[in-house]
Amino acid sequence: MRARRLIPTVYIIFLMLPIYWLLNMSFKTTNEILGGLTLWPQTFTLENYVTIFSDPTWYMGYVNSLIYVSINTVISVAVALPAAYAFSRYRFLGDKHVFFWLLTNRMAPAAVFALPFFQLYSAVGLFDTHLAVALAHTLFNIPLAVWILEGFMSGVPKELDETAYIDGHSFWSFFIRIFMPTIAAGIGVAMFFCFMFSWVELLLAKTLTSVEAKPIAATMTRTASTSGYELGLLAAAGVLTIVPGAFVIYFVRNYIAKGFALGRV
Amino acid sequence: MARITLDNLGHAYMPNPVNPADWALQQLDFEFEDGGAYALLGPSGCGKTTLLNIISGLLVPSRGRVLFDGEDMTTRDPTARNIAQVFQFPVIYDTMTVRQNLAFPLRNRGVPAAEIDARVREIAEMTDLTEMLDRRASGLTADGKQKISLGRGLVRDDVNVIMFDEPLTVIDPHLKWQLRSKLKELHRRIDRTMIYVTHDQIEALTFADRVVLMKDGGVVQIGTPVELFERPAHTFVGHFIGSPGMNLLPCIMAGDTAMIGDTPIAVANAASVKPGGALEIGIRPEFVGFADRGLPVQVTRVMNAGRYRIVETVTQTGQTVKLLASNEDEVPSEATHLSFDPAFTRVYRDGWLAGEGRGA
Amino acid sequence: MRKTVNQRAWLFILPVLVLVAFNAILPLMTVVNYSVQETFGNNEFFWAGLIWFEQVIESPRFHDSLIRQLIFTFSILAIEIPLGVIIALAMPRKGAWVSVCLVLMALPLLIPWNVVGAMWNIFALPDIGLMGYGLNALGFDFNFTRQIGDAWFTLLLMDVWHWTSLVVLLAYAGLVSIPDAYYQAARIDGASSWAIFRYIQLPKMKRVLTIAVLLRFMDSFNIYTEPFVLTGGGPGNSTTLLSIDLVKIALGQFDLGPAAAMSLIYFLIILLLSWVFYTLMMRNEE
Fold first, then answer.
1. How many folded domains does chain B comprise?
2. What does the pLDDT average to over B248-256?
3. Which residue, of A35, A242, C67, C253, is most buried by count of CB atoms within 10 Å of its CB?
């Protein structure tokens, strides 16, 4: 029994090591970092964090990222809900093909779309806006959301719908007041995945922005290349990108085991 | 084959039980005889599954001992006790054929192949699985899968006792009867101790030679199905068993005679009733009839139950009394009287049968 | 579920179709457009037939990238899937620790991909990185910016660090859905731990493992950011995977024709391979 518990423990330690190293570095001055290897800061400093919180070029990066991620999550889940309902309850001409086509978009390499998106979004005048990134990410998030939601919806028997109509509900009244609360867990899972994917994606986010909607990821890469290695600052910025993710996981921790089953297991 | 003894057995799921309510199983002292067919019957939460798991070794009791043929097995593993268990839903190995499923317990014990083959065929014949032996187990219907579960329990010949935990739960109603008869037939054939847990009285009463009726972790009555029906030891037994359940009417004792209102009622245990406590008369609808004299009632409802009718009447004090009437009998439509068969009419004190056990 | 035939359902999926079509069909049309045309600047395009496709398919550069990509993808599949399953099996099925474990394990999955790359870049540096320094201190001559073997090692380790948790979470979800009665019956049947794994756990995990393999296959085949930030594709082009190469050609060199042709071929390859994977695994379920 003991040996068994060791496996997850060792794994978690392995996972925490690079994060600890990043944390470690974020509290040091760049001088100390370049001076040699120390396991914890000899001269503990909050300077890096202060810079990030006070310099708009830095903290706006986080704000921008949070903005487009939120927009994306809302859009993706909102349009996915009726679509998933249709796939779950109805048969219609081409339904299987459309569903499959949606999934193929999730498979698409982002690299293939980098240049075309750049041209497309510039052409419609959306270049360097939060909306652009939010919309671009829907290419991948909508299929995922539809897939997840359809799985959860199929677990709810049609009798629920029929009973609601007999009771006099209109479709939307039924959908919003009865159906959505029933699949609340599924909506949560879909939102989690949409948030997750949009938050972590860099290529498209960088390609479609330059100044106004610049995500934190882009700010970080700029720092590394132009002003030399400001490692402490970079590390602090990195640590701060982990924080929203940690928050989100904490909130959904009870659903993680179940939710990852995507309702289809 | 074994005699199973429960000695001062009790179990609480929480670490420090204080009140009786904390105990899932109250004090139990009971012996299952070798080769008997027993049913543990009771409503959900009465402790019957807890008891089953303690006997099979899947659970270690907080207090007391479990003995197999006198040997203390309380903390021993299920494999050491040589038991078999059939669960609520079929537990089969999906990737194996029916034959491989049945052979599995024997293979794990290193039984030679020829013997395995013979045993598997014997059990398949007993459980009507012979035609499906080489099919994938996952392809069978629910009752077929339960038969496989059962078969895996039967295939070992060193099995002391076979336990069933509500095995017919997922079976279609019209197949339940078939499977129940099969179990009864099997019991007669292989003569092994069988313990059957259920909340369904029909299953329990048709299967078992002796029924252990449980409630809230304690045993209310142990007896043959007939005993439980005709002579319930507690009003709960009267109410749980039988459909509709026993009629209960508050009464008083006037000297040696039981009275409901002004009507004297002849009861079987009048002499044993000690004073004090809440008194009720219990009589099953099967033993109530219309008469010219007796308890005055008014007929309120007649319900059709297929082969007979259930008549509801109400007394002058508003108590409901149910009785059965055949489809041909004439049911009086106005005020009439009821007579109770004295042999089956009894007084209950605080729920318990007066004059015995805790009603004494 | 009995589904009713209802052509009005198209209205429900209309918003989805509009958005995805905007993002998928329009750009893809552009890509197809470029892939069959040639330009000498001046915004003049003329039909070029399939020459870009031929050029890409025959180019050694593409072959190399493809091979590197295939090696990468199959390596990480071979490591992450078994590792994820082993960890999931080793985890307790109930209890307070489970939540804590799952939360910590999920953390790498929510770190922006560039931060993952940057984190590992720093972590592996020989002079200031814990791992780089440590490996050198142990006697290994480790330098991932100069030595190809070290670069690949770091790349694979980084991906394992990043994504194994996804497999763990999926496998774990499959495992906890197995009712206790199965384990109890196996105990009674005298089954060994290996038999329990083979006949109870593995079959029940099949569906989730299929999802895990498909997801990891697709995502690793499309990977861009993490390796780009970690090594930039180097040393030389030893870690230049398909996406990195494509972006170099498209956004770096602005070779629209070849980039477009390569994009289509790339997309086709992954569609084909995914379909093969999917069919194989679905057939296994029968």
1. 2
2. 84
3. A242
Q: B111 CA to chain C: closest CA distance, Å?
A: 13
When pLDDT is cut at 50, 70 and 90, the band that residue A73 belongs to is very high
Checking if the pLDDT of A226 tops 50, the result is no
Distance in angstroms (rounded) separating the CA atoms of residues B84 and B109: 14
What is the pLDDT confidence band of residue A257, given thresholds at 50, 70 and 90? low
Same domain? B132 vs B203: yes
The boundaries of the domain holding residue B292 are 245-351
* Residue type for position C240: T
pLDDT digits (tens, 9 = 90+) for B212-235: 998 888 888 889 999 888 888 888
pLDDT band of residue B27 (cuts 50, 70, 90) is confident
Residue range(s) defining the domain that contains residue C106: 56-285
User: Using an 8 Å Cβ cutoff, are C263 and C43 in contact?
Assistant: no
Is any Cβ of chain C less than 8 angstroms from the Cβ of B116?
A: no
Can you tell me the distance from the alpha carbon of A226 to that of B103, in angstroms, rounded to the nearest whole number?
Answer: 71
Cβ–Cβ of C182/B77 closer than 8 Å? no
Q: Does C203 touch chain B (CB under 8 A)?
A: yes
Q: Residue C185 belongs to a domain with what CATH number?
A: 1.10.3720.10
Q: Measuring CA to CA, which residue among A189, B134, B168 is closest to residue C169?
A: A189
Q: What is the pTM of this model?
A: 0.79
Give me the helix-helix angle, A216-226 and C113-124, nearest 10°: 30
Q: Is the pLDDT of residue A261 over 70?
A: no
- Residue B19 belongs to a domain: yes
Beta carbons of A187 and A149 less than 8 angstroms apart: yes
In a domain, C42, yes or no: no
DSSP B78-94: HHHHTEEEE-SS----T
Find the distance separating the first CA and the last CA of chain B, reported in whole Å: 37
Residues B183 and B89 in one domain: yes
Identify whether C31 is part of a domain.
Answer: no
Burial of C185 (0-12, 13-18, 19+ CB in 10 A): buried
Using a CB-CB cut-off of 8 Å, the residues of chain C touching B77 are: 187
Same domain, B214 and B75: yes
- Flag whether C39 is in a domain: no
> Domain for residue C147, yes or no?
yes
B203, B235, B267 - which closes a domain: B235
B251 inside domain: yes
Partner residue opposite C30 with nearest CB, options A111, A116, A203? A116
Both tokens of B342, joined, read: 């004295």
Can you say whether residue C91 is alpha, beta or left, with left for phi > 0 and alpha for psi between -120 and 50 degrees?
A: beta
Q: Among B201, B235, B269, identify where a domain stops.
A: B235
Length of chain B as a residue count: 360
Q: How far apart are CA C68 and CA C58, in angstroms?
A: 16
All domains in chain A, ordered by first residue: 62-215+243-259 (1.10.3720.10)
Chain A hits for C123, CB-CB cut-off 8 Å, are 17-18, 21-22
CA distance B69 to B3: 5
State the Cα–Cα distance between residues C105 and C170, nearest whole angstrom. Answer: 12
Find out whether B171 and B145 touch, Cβ atoms under 8 Å. no
Does A touch B (3+ CB pairs < 8 Å)? no
Number of domains forming the structure of chain C: 1
- The whole-angstrom separation of Cα C14 and Cα C9 is 9
The per-residue pLDDT for A185 is 78
